Amino acid sequence: MTPIVQGKRLVKRYGEVQALQGIHFSICSGECVGFLGPNGAGKTTLLHMMSGIVQKTSGDLTLLGLDISKQAREIKARIGVLPQENNLDPDFTVENNLRAYARYFGISGKLAQSRVEELLHFIQLYDKRKAKISELSGGMKRRLMLIRSLVNNPEFLILDEPTTGLDPQARHVIWQKLRSLKSSGKTMVLTTHYMEEAAQLCDRLYMIDRGKILAEGKPQELIHRYVGKEVLEIRLRKKEKDRLLERLEGLDFESEEIEDTLYLFPRDSEAVLRRLVEFDVQELQRRPSTLEDLFFKLTGRGLHE
Ligand SMILES: Nc1ncnc2c1ncn2[C@@H]1O[C@H](COP(=O)(O)OP(=O)(O)OP(=O)(O)O)[C@@H](O)[C@H]1O
Ligand SMILES: [Mg+2]
User: Fold this and answer.
1) What pLDDT shows up at residue 97?
2) Which of 4, 234, 240, 259 has the most CB atoms lying inside 10 A of its own CB?
3) What's the Rg (C-alpha) of the chain?
4) Which residues are near ligand 1 (CB < 6 Å)?
């Protein structure tokens, strides 16, 4: 498949800060691709570049076969952007926020009206169409932001943390809507700090940190490649821990110790569990490995800002 978005050797510098350090990526038609990484990794910077808001320092970036540094206007007309921070116009009602966007894209009259109504029904905000922005809950504002990004019926959708700060219900509503957009053939890129969101929505992921791509692949493939099938989470006393690791010598596993918890990533969980019986383990959890384990494995558990 030919990619509809492609970045090569992309660099962004803000003074001394290297926000993106020469990254390569591609997104094919119909794909939902996620960029996952800690705060400050460079995700928003990358999405801003794709949206034509931020200029790259160097490298190549094409969207829909067009060069962002030469044809940004044409690209902007054909993409939809949900920014990390809401920026609704507080002076307008819900429907007028959408109309203003439609006007910006040159959509007016009956077409604008039917498009706005259709989107309000789609996201279940039709009853709120006359409300002021200040009367909306956080979840409603985010839903409105999402449909605002759809006003021009974009071919490519850029979603920067679509559900951050929302309650589980509101998050699930947005996930359902994004899934339905995906099945209608929309191509999307998203960032998120919710690993569950990435697992639910993304066909493929790029793990990113400090402006560099650390890994790329399908969610399950990445987990199996970097973490393995299962994790044993063990809580026990400090001095028991060293003895336990000694006792496990010879078995094939990796481990990580964080505060009171020992994480084991064994090739054969049964073999490890057999040797654990003699220990006074306070808590033990055996579970399938997740994207969260992958995230920590690749980016570490501490803050590095
Ligand atoms: N306008 C700016 N001027 C200077 N530095 C910036 C600017 N925007 C971003 N940065 C820096 O670039 C780096 C990447 O920031 P970016 O916002 O892209 O991260 P992010 O991955 O989106 O993080 P978060 O998960 O917190 O949203 C950070 O070190 C940030 O401080
Ligand atoms: Mg960001």
Assistant:
1) 98
2) 234
3) 23
4) 14, 17, 19, 37, 39-45, 84
